[in-house]
Design goal:
The chain has 666 residues and is of the alpha+beta class. The protein folds into 6 domains: 3-61, Helix hairpin bin (Helix Hairpins, Orthogonal Bundle), CATH 1.10.287; 83-304, 2-Layer Sandwich (D-amino Acid Aminotransferase, Chain A, domain 1), CATH 3.30.470.30; 312-422, Nucleic acid-binding proteins (OB fold (Dihydrolipoamide Acetyltransferase, E2P)), CATH 2.40.50; 429-501, DNA polymerase, domain 1 (Orthogonal Bundle), CATH 1.10.150.20; 504-587, DNA polymerase, domain 1, CATH 1.10.150.20; 589-665, 3-Layer(aba) Sandwich (Rossmann fold), CATH 3.40.50.10190. The structure holds 2-(butylsulfanyl)adenosine (IVH). Residues 79-81, 110, 112-113, 117, 170, 222-223, 283, 302, 305, 307 line the site of 2-(butylsulfanyl)adenosine.
Length: 666
């Protein structure tokens, strides 16, 4: 394999794992495996800058930088803490500190809050800036969003704070807010947040700060930095900062021996379950700033502090069986059926096994005693097997199936993907039902009166086999079924009738093309006037659309090259669904840039980069990522990258500025 192919394979793998983790909430590999793949990619990219790609998964690693926020350098890098998991390691830390200092010292023990860290800059008692951790060196300026968090003071009390200082802490989403938010998301059929940490960091990155405000975030501050701090003690400084208006955790204790430290740890290991926010450990810090300075830092973390991580709550229970579920996309998910067991306040009966690799790594047998963990996650997972408890009575080894449990088709596994799929998408029952359920859902055709149960019963009765069959239903046909009265039958038929007005972009989304979510569907609808143009689009044309890469383009081509799908679309069209852009939408569009490939580079003053992208598309042009001989011109702001400039000059491509561009489309 060439380096380029290697890079491409790693990127596509990591994109998929990112998606599994952040969108589907079902990670299919461990964090360590993910990190190791990412490191491989980063190394290759470093060695081969010629294959650089703005959309590489590496651009979001260990960094939560989002191009929609301004990036700001941290005055002091935001380091992490080294983690320990046992009393022995805590002891080692304590002895190391003792030896290095060779004098009396205090250790301040405090909660390790499990949220997202923030740096707050105060000048003359006013909050000037709030920056996320980012990659540790620079982060996103999220000041407007942070200002909505009520527990963060905008203006300080008192008068003995330093003229300029930094306060760091953790932004948190309390458990009850998190649960409420997920309930709302569930009702709207949106993907749920896996834990309060993701919910907090996701919220902080919203573009609309009024939504942030409604999400009721909280914050604890735990680290004061700057010159002229009032005391030499970390603990004492935080107590003082409390008087300035900061929310400081009351759960702190200065310890003078390892016994006192272990007392604190074991007390909070239990009591933390009653706290309103998530915690995942205890942080131990040498209290004196002078001593901290003496101890210093390693490249990654301070030598004067460590984190002791709590053991995630887990339970031991029997694995009774493994079943395989087939979803709408044909993905087959293995589910472990467990002897019911109590875990962090709920009874757990099932756990996800994710994919074949995970099953293989666990080396599972039916009847095994397995460890189930919930951590901060919603879906419990099996993290290990107690092989010592395995008896000669043990059942069969758990193997991933080869045949679809629903329709018997031989399963396939796409290259670079962890999941197995049933390829029989036009006749496998859960896939058909799933497709219809997706089609009628709120964000797609939004058909009132129809839900998964009705779809299920219509399907079993042979009334519907696909989405087009819905438009053949009549009140007569359904009113006596399944205890449905005339009224509810009327509702359903009305809902189906109304759906014919649903705009083109949502029809595209409703078709359920693999990888075509809401956003991509919108982009497609903006690029093609009607469904026939889309059906006949070439790969090249598809890839030219913003957000559509090789993988999505191929999936769209596959979908439309399938005869069954084309017949279905013809029937939907005949039924009267909206298969073209509306008049108003069309009125908004011009063809002033039709046929032109335009690269955007640099920073702009009149409009944002995204706004320019939208303008290009509205005027019929294509915004492309990199310069090639086919590029029509470059829309350049300030500080256009030197390599781009060089390439443009070499290829003799015209460069125009903001004003010229605006004139061109006015
Ligand atoms: S002190 C130089 N104190 O844990 C280290 N961090 O792995 C300064 N965290 O990024 C951090 N609770 O997001 C500190 N009481 C606490 C903390 C805490 C949570 C997080 C923080 C940091 C990470 C370190």
């Amino acid at each position: 394999m060439t380096v380029k192919e290697q890079i491409e394979q790693l990127r596509s793998l990591l994109h998929q794992h990112n998606y599994n983790y952040y969108v589907l909430n079902t990670p299919s590999i461990s964090d360590q495996e993910f990190d190791s793949l990412m490191r491989q990619l980063q190394e290759l990219e470093e060695q081969h800058p010629e294959y650089q790609d703005e959309n590489s998964p590496s651009v979001r690693v260990g960094s939560d930088i989002n191009k929609n926020f301004t990036q700001v350098s941290h005055k002091y890098p935001m380091l992490s803490l080294s983690n320990t998991y046992s009393e022995g390691e805590v002891n080692e830390f304590y002895q190391r500190v003792r030896k290095a200092l060779n004098e009396e010292f205090e250790i301040c023990c405090e909660m390790k809050y499990d949220g997202t860290s923030i740096s707050l800059i105060y000048e003359d008692g006013k909050l000037m800036r709030a920056v996320t951790r980012g990659d540790g060196e620079k982060g996103d300026d999220v000041t407007d969003n942070v200002k909505t968090i009520k527990s963060i003071p905008l203006v300080l009390h008192g008068n003995n704070y330093p003229p300029v200082f930094e306060m760091r802490g953790e932004i948190l989403m309390p458990w009850d807010t998190f649960e409420e938010l997920n309930r709302e998301k569930e009702a709207r059929e949106e993907p749920l947040f896996a834990n309060p940490r993701n919910a907090a960091s996701g919220t902080l990155k919203l573009q609309n700060s009024s939504i942030v405000a409604s999400r009721k975030l909280d914050a604890y501050l735990y680290y004061l930095l700057g010159d002229n701090l009032p005391f030499d003690g970390h603990y004492e400084n935080l107590q003082e900062a409390k008087k300035w208006g900061f929310k400081i955790s009351p759960l702190m204790r200065k310890c003078h021996s390892t016994e006192e430290i272990f007392e604190f740890i074991s007390y909070w290991d239990i009591e933390r379950k009653n706290l309103p926010v998530a915690t995942d450990g205890i942080v131990l810090k040498v209290n004196s700033l002078k001593q901290q300075k003496n101890l210093g830092f390693t490249a990654k973390s301070p030598r004067w502090a460590i984190a002791y991580k709590f053991q995630a709550e887990r339970a031991l229970t029997r694995l009774n069986s493994v079943t395989f579920q087939v979803g709408r996309t044909g993905a087959v998910t293995p589910v472990a059926n467990l002897e019911p067991v109590q875990l962090s306040g709920t009874v757990v009966k099932r756990a996800s096994l994710h994919n074949a690799d995970i099953i293989e790594n666990l080396d599972l047998y039916i009847g095994d005693m397995v460890y189930v963990e919930k951590g901060g996650e919603i879906i419990p997972k099996i993290t290990g097997v107690d092989t010592a408890l395995r008896s000669f009575m043990i059942g069969e080894k758990v193997k991933f199936i080869n045949q679809c449990p629903e329709c018997g088709s031989t399963l396939i596994r796409y290259e670079g993907e962890a999941a197995h799929y049933c390829p029989n998408d036009s006749a496998c029952p859960p896939q058909i039902k799933g497709k219809i359920e997706h089609f009628i859902s709120r964000k797609a055709m939004n058909i009132d009166g129809l839900g998964p149960e009705t779809v299920d019963s219509f399907y079993s009765l042979g009334l519907i086999q696909n989405t087009a069959d819905l438009y053949q239903l009549t009140i007569e046909k359904i009113k006596d079924l399944d205890g449905k009265g005339e009224k509810s039958a009327e509702n359903i038929i009305n809902g189906i009738e109304q759906s014919k007005k649903v705009p083109f972009e949502r029809v595209i989304f409703a078709l359920g093309i693999r990888f075509v979510g809401e956003t991509v569907a919108k982009k497609i609808a903006k690029s093609f006037t009607n469904i026939d143009e889309l059906i006949n689009a070439s790969k090249e044309e598809l890839i030219n659309i913003d957000e559509i890469g090789e993988k999505i383009a191929q999936s769209i081509l596959n979908f439309f090259s399938n005869e069954t799908n084309r017949t279905l679309i013809q029937r939907l069209k005949d039924a009267g669904l909206t298969m073209q852009r509306s008049e108003e939408e069309r009125a908004d569009y011009t063809d002033k840039l039709s046929g032109l490939s335009i690269v955007i580079s640099g920073t702009f003053t009149h409009y944002s980069r995204d706004e320019y992208k939208a303008m290009i598309e509205k005027n019929g042009g294509k915004n492309v990522g990199s310069i090639s001989a086919k590029t029509s011109f470059i829309l350049a702001g300030e500080n256009m990258g030197p390599s781009k400039l060089d390439k443009a000059n070499k290829l003799g491509i015209k460069i125009i500025n903001e004003e010229e561009f605006l004139k061109l489309i006015s």
